[in-house]
Amino acid sequence: xxxxxxxxxxxxxxxxxxxxxxxxxxxxxxxxxxxxxxxxxxxxxxxxxxxxxxxxxxxxxxxxxxxxxxxxxxxxxxxxxxxxxxxxxxxxxxxxxxxxxxxxxxxxxxxxxxxxxxxxxxxxxxxxxxxxxxxxxxxxxxxxxxxxxxxxxxxx
Length: 156
Known about the structure:
Elements: H1 49-58, H2 62-75, H3 80-92, H4 96-109, H5 114-126, H6 130-143, H7 148-153
Helix pairs in contact: 1-2, 2-3, 3-4, 4-5, 5-6
């Protein structure tokens, strides 16, 4: 058997004329609010931008679609489907100036998509840039010579 060490004497508490300060309460941060719409969560614990885009496609109104596309872009600023979806909403609202930068970004991300260039041409036309519109439509035809929409817009 091992002998036990004798207990060590405790140091006396310092004497003060003041009462001890009350313990500082722990600061509790409120839990974040859950999203207002159903969001698919991926294995990494973040929202899934493609799931938001699918929800937007199924939404019945542009306000809901816009909110979902914006959420998708907040998660993935390079998500070209959300860019184009949001641009189409702006075009329906007669807001081509808001659609153009989204479509230009989508074209940069997916250079081979003729339909994105057709939409870009439409936005430029609606903003009064007829030369820029014609350029975008011609570029669409270079990518897809049978693109009916580009032919129609160019009067061919």
